[in-house]
Amino acid sequence: MTLELPVDLLFGLNLDLNLDLTRVMTANAIVLPVVLPLLAAFLMQPLAQVSRFLARLLGPLVLTLGAWIILNTWLEVGPAPFSVAIGGFAAPLGIVFYADQLALLFALAVQVFTLLFWPGLGAGAKSEVAADRQRAPRRDALALLLASAATGLALSGDLFNIFVFYELAAVASFGLVCADGSGRAWIATLRYLFISAFGSVLALVGIAILYLQTGTLNLAQLAQVAPETLQGPIGLAAFALLLIGFGVKAELFPLNAWVPEVYATAPARVSALLAGLVSKLAILVIVRLLILVFQQPEASQLLLVLGVLGVLTGEFSAWRAQDFPRLLAFSSIGQLGLVAIAFSIDGTTGILAGTAVALHHLIVKSALFGLANRWSGGLDALTGAAKGAPRAAGLFVLFALSLIGVPPLWGFWIKLLIMVGLVQGGSPLDLLALGAILLATAVEAHYLFRVALRLYQPPVPDRALRLAPPARWDTGVAYLLGACLVVISVAITPTTEALRVLAQQTGDVLLYIDTVFPQPLAYKE
Amino acid sequence: MDWLSAVSLDGLAAVDFRWLGLVLELILMPLIAFVVGLGLVLMLRKIAARLQRRVGPPLLQPLWDIIKLHAKETQTSHGLIHEIGIVMAIGGYVAAVTLLPVPGMNGLAAQGGLIALLYMTMIPSLGLALGVGQCANPNGSIGISRALTAMLAYDVPMVIVIFGVAFHFGSLNLVYLIAAQQAGGIATWGIVQMPLLALAGLFALQGMLGKQPFEIYVAPAEIATGPMVEMGGKFLGGLFVMQCFQLYTAGVLYVALFLGGGENWLTFLFKVFVVTAIPMTIAMVFPRYRTEDMVRLFWKWPTMIGLLGIAFVMN
Amino acid sequence: MTHIDQVPTPGAPRPVEIGVKPGTKRTNPFARVFDELVRFAQSRSLFMLHYCTGCGAVELPPAMTSRFDMERLGIQPMVSPRQADILLITGYVSVKTLKRVILTYEQMNSPKYVIGICSCTVNGGMYWQSYATAKKLNDYMPVDIYIAGCMPRPEAVIEGLRGLIENIRTGRADAWKDYYRRYDHYLGNQQRLFGADWQTPTDVIAEARHYDLFGPATLGAHTALLEQHQRPLEALEMRIEIPELMRRRSRSDQGGTAQ
Amino acid sequence: MATSPTTVVDQLLAGLHLPDGFDAVAGVIREFLDQVTNSAIWTRYGQQSLEWLIGMNPVDRLFMLSALTLLLMLLLGRLRSAGVLAVLLYGAQFAALLSTDTLFGAPLAAAVRITVADQSLHWSYDALSWFFAMITIGTGFVTAWYAAGSWMRRYREAGRSARAFHVALALNCFGMLLLVGSADLLSLFLGWELVSWASFLLMALVGGPAAQAALKYLAYAISGAMLILGAIALIYGISGSFEYDAVVAAIRSMTDAQVWTLLLLLGGGFAVKLGLLPFHLWQAAAYAEAPGAGSVFLGAISARMGLFGIIVFIVGMIGVSRLMTLEIPYTFMSSRELIAWIAALTIIVPTYTALQQHDARYLLAWHGIGQGGYMLLGLMVGDAVGSAGGLLHCFNYAITQAALLMAVFAVVHRTGTADLNQLGGLVTRMPLTFLVLLFGIISLAGLPPMAGFVSKWMVYRSLITEGMPLLFVAAVVGTLGTILSVYKLIHNIFLGQLRVEHQEVAEAPLSMLIPMLGLSALIFLAGFIPGPALSWVAQVQGQLGLPVVPWVLGGIVDPRGGLDMIWLVGILMAGFGVGALVFYGFGGRSRRVHQLDNYAGGHFLTADVHYQYSDNFYAGLMHLIGPWYRGSFRWLERSLAATLDLVSFGAEGLYRLAQPTLLMLAAAVAMLAWVL
């Protein structure tokens, strides 16, 4: 291969003559979706000085490129996982990216969804444009930063790196949330900041414990040594601390007090990104830790308990919510509780269910937040909105049905999967979780359809005029995501099969270790 | 042709002539019921008169009343339903009495048992209620509302009684019930076997006949005879006919349930007249109960007695 | 005590034609027997509606209860005009009351009989000079029997009733037909008392037509006055008007006329 | 022999026995068809489709037609002629159902089969499915007809979407066909949810109070569905499969505690839909407020899906005999008695609630809840006659309630109100509608000679022979309450004084009358000759493993008290004949007088005085039982909602804490304490 040199120079290719060069090269390109947005984010301000137009274009371009690279890599490399050591430093010491199907899927989702909910795209209202022009470069930079960090979270193979990306994502999201500059947004951000910082401290403590116990932060290595060093209370304590730390972004129960305020005040697309995307990546991290490092029933139970509490508090609070974004925010807490419950189920079923419900929520909740862009404010104000925006209202009903889990939509099969998993687990806690899910679903159906019926009521004469239909771009995105949902619902069997393969791969600890350390390392002996 | 052969002599030989007897029974039974009913009406009026130290009406007074009413030269109708109501009131009872076995005649008792009879007797009431409704007089509607409430009151002990008897003899078939009672003389009569139920049944009978103290639904001085307020001429005459059937049905039903039915016409009629005389005698010494008091009374005492009776029957 | 023969007769002498409608020919050999039976039944079963406005009412309870017991004669009280054969008016009739009495009378089913008890019904009695009392009852409705007295004793009442029974049995008690035949006369008297806009919800003229009781003096100036200010009450006949069918019918009618 | 249009036509012509002259015509047709069949397009597509249609599995054909109805309504529902098209399509569905021959024949599985994630969903029609599908499609057919003409025109004029209505109706039918044909737990749940949401759609169509009622329904329905889903998950946990065979085996191996759990979950879930007692509050408003024709469909059959579930699971799989062995701890009752008593209370309470209603739609809807109790009661008695009565009542009740609601909505169509205090005297203006309502109420009250009598008689009889006095009394008390309230219904609408504003009211439009009259005739026929319906029921019983009722054409044969409706109805008609003879044959001519020519104690009536008794119709009874209406269930519902609200308030409070980090700290400490 002729191209080996520049690639080598750029990314410090870990040359190994036994490997297929093309495969390695393509594999290494996976770093680009992390690096390019990062670079673009830093370039944004200077570029904006030069040309606003180019600056506006930069973000979508980079993201499209990133998505294309990931897709290309995936197609080229195939289903097997691979790892990339950055800078040429070998695994235990250097920075490792691990890309299995799960990671690739989420990395791809990051690119695509950030693109779909790109703050600058198709924001219709003219009055906002002037103010928007001032803020646009900064906001775009933050969004790119978020994309980069999120991709990094999906791919990173060591805990330290994960922590760094996590903080990067936090910073980016603080900025994005208060990008509008309203007072309420500032306060919400502050609250978010406190909670996040506190969580980070705890997570750092957890990481420290891990390091003290094992002397490494590389996940593969941790996975190797975990059965010996991390069994027992110390390991669990570390997990608990990490859970709390990463749980902040994953919207797990006691750590998500920031969620309703932030989603209610942040721009709807940012909410869509945070609720749909970033939370999933945070939980992905937790799941990786759970699978690789903390393979103990107590750890799963911890997750389960938090999940149950999240489902219950989220859905019940949503039942009382009086405005649309807040309702979605609480609902999202509930759904992430469900994700946590799903991942706490043993074995492939759990991973399968968890991944499915995470993806499902990603699609549905992002779209709903997109619709909420113009529908923010009290629920009363939504009366008769279907008259002005029949398509948006129809999409809302579709997503609501899937969220509730009405067959034959995808949501149903996921819920069924979780329930079957819980029943097969069979412990009292599992059955409790089952009951909680059922209860929460009933509550969920009620509040979602309270909104739906409100949409379809005859409009109140003077209010209806003020209520603008969702922007065309948002509706378009919702259409696209709705179509995805329908397609998946129809092609439920292949989708489930694909996810099962993915889940098996994710759950295979040995595969992870073998991928990161192709040859057994000397020092291990 | 096929159908011709079916009517040939071979076929004729196979024809069962019992159906002729049945037709005869079906014609005779309502006729007898009507005549006996006239006698019962007369007896009731006579009892009332005697208790008030009056002479009372002459022998054929019930008949004269009916003839006079039908012979009225102007007949005030309030519409088709008004008329059909009366037709249903008479017709329902004409049908119902064929379900009541009398000595020598079983009629259709085997084709519909006790429950069918019970519900068949509601058809006349429904017809009457419809007719009264069409009269467009609120007095009549109030009367019907009270009558239906009264039915709700007395039917509860009534069905308890019916359950008890049917369960005791293990059948809903009146023919079977009577045969079972007659099998062992008086000792196997319902009244001996189930005295409590018989008592509850007597209570129910009082309500069923709408005699004092349970005649709130006619209440002449208050709602101008309620259902009958707009009934004149042959409309009222139809109701008089219906009353004959009603008395007969109630009396015969009670006799069939508790007094072993009729061995022969003499004892049968004697029992029927005695049974029907009891409510009338009681009636004359009572004033009138209000609707809710009536319901309360029926749901309390006869119901409790009846349930106690069932408890005995089922053990 | 008033004797049967002294019953005041309004208008012309009445022809005796009981049970046989004019123009109908009875071919049934048992017709006469049947008519006898009906007349007998009518005379032996009298339901009585008492319109007790004055002091005369106190003499009725003894006539009904154990001492004299009307039920022996087949007479018993009833409460609504539809059920009654006899309208018993005991005592003075004020103008206001008279309206109700007339309505009640018109609502009764024929054959129907009116008995005026006490002098007040005959000539106003002690209220002769009252501006608010109707003096002669038979000006406003045909009266079959007056039982005079102030007040007549129960024996007199019973005797009067027996007289009525006798009249019915022999077919002479048909004053009620006079109300139909000479409705204009009675209506005129009523109008003079109550004013020109007097009307009752009953439709006497239509009834007279329906039952072949229409007479030469049924209509007249007074009925014309009645019809002038009153839209006649149509009987609410049952009708089946299915819009689609009616539309089709009317269309075909139009089509017919076009051709 | 390969099927082609030519052969089909040949067979048709052969069947017609045409005279010789037609041979030439037939030849022309045959020639034309031959040309068609020899064309390339035909051989490529046409032949295949034809063979596919003819050779199709009958159950698939049924599903396909139902789906086609849905699709066509979705596409063409806006057209004016969509109503007629719908009627034809439902008719075709009915024909397709009859062609399955699963009632008397063997059960037939659909070829359609969906496999999802290792689980396969499949459908199969047997006698029970046939029975329920027959009622469903029949109801759909008459409802569509009822809605096809004038009703829909008015509906459109009110600015409502005809397409939405047609789609909702078609979706309901489709969902029910899937549900009753379900052959495993997943397809059952799929059908269940489809039916639930389709009903929701139909209820919520007109907005306003209907939407509120629909939302309440949704809260109940989804809770019920979740109970069922929980039960399904539990069964799967034990059996490891969703197939019915495995389920039956699993239930047989379950402990009593497990069966109890299952019973509570499934029973609760199905009870919600059926409107059994503590879960009945949603139904009346939801069914009554739905658009007229929709209300007819919902009222007639929708709630019976709950009964279907109970029949399949509790009667069919668990079995009444198993129920009898399940004792309630510390009492003398078995679970069967518990259910029977719930059924009895379901008869009584809603029936007497109906008595208090002054809106005709609500009155009937409340009765709908009560009548469900009879069906369940009959099934719980479990003997041949009782269970047959319960099943038969499904059919009888469906035709009765459909006719009743149609009549009431015809009145609403003409007068604009269903308020029983605003109507009266309409019998002279809408006599045929009156007749329909009359037949309906006689049947609903369970009086001879109508259909309702037969099924109720069977339930009573089984209660007597099985020795259940209190339940019997409860059932009769329910019937008496029904008689009271249906009289009030017919009286306040059709009898009494006609109001001035209704002087010019015309009879219901023909498009609405025809299905109404057809149903009335059916009600009478099913009472006169209950044999056919009993034969269906007997098949269902046989399939469910219940004792089979000894039916004949006229009813039931039993020396200890049978029922022969042919005789009874015959003698009743003869009696009416005699009555008519007595009434019309003897005595003078009658004359119709005006309604104001009426006894009022000498008072002069005028049109501006409402001389009508309608409000608080059973005043005397209400003096006594009025205080018994405490609204306990509403109170229960409200307290539950308040509790939920409180819980939510608490949950929401966690998210409002001023110091969220304290909560985190507490959580961290708690978790660490737990792990250490």
| Count of discrete domains of chain C | 1
Q: Please tell me how large the radius of gyration of chain C is.
A: 22 Å
Unreliable parts of chain D = none
Radius of gyration of chain D: 28 Å
Structural class of chain D: mainly alpha
Query: Per DSSP, what share of the residues of chain D sits in E-state strands of 2 or more residues?
Result: under 5%
Give the spatial strand order of the biggest sheet of chain C.
Answer: 2-1-3-5-7
Just name the CATH architecture of chain C. Answer: 3-Layer(aba) Sandwich
Task: Describe the protein in words.
The complex is a heterotetramer of chains A (525), B (315), C (259) and D (676). Helices cover 76% and strands 2% of the residues of chain A. Chain A has 23 helices and two strands. A two-stranded antiparallel ribbon of chain A has the order 1-2. In chain A, a hairpin with an 8-residue loop joins strand 1 and strand 2. In chain A, helix 10 packs parallel to helix 13. The longest helix of chain A is centred in the middle third of the chain and has 32 residues, at 183-214. Chain A is globular. Residues 1-19 and 521-525 of chain A have low confidence and may be disordered. Chain B has 315 residues and is mainly α. Chain B has one domain (16-314). Chain B is built from 15 helices and one strand, in the order ααααβααααααααααα. Chain B has helices spanning 2-6, 9-14, 18-51, 61-70, 80-96, 114-120, 122-134, 138-169, 174-182, 190-193, 195-208, 220-223, 233-258, 265-283, 291-314, and one strand at residues 75-77. Chain B is globular, with a radius of gyration of 21 Å. Chain B starts with a helix and ends with a helix. In chain C, helix 2 (60-64) links the parallel strand 1 (46-52) and strand 2 (75-77). In chain C, helix 1 (31-44) packs antiparallel against helix 5. Chain D has 676 residues and is mainly alpha-helical. In chain D, the strands form two sheets. Chain D has a three-stranded antiparallel sheet. Chain D has a two-stranded antiparallel sheet with strand order 1-2. Chain D is globular. Chain D starts with a helix and ends with a helix. The mean pLDDT of chain D is 86. Chains in contact: A-D, B-C, B-D, C-D. At the B-D interface, strand 1, helix 5, helix 6, helix 7 and helix 8 of B face helix 20, helix 21, helix 22, strand 5 and helix 25 of D.
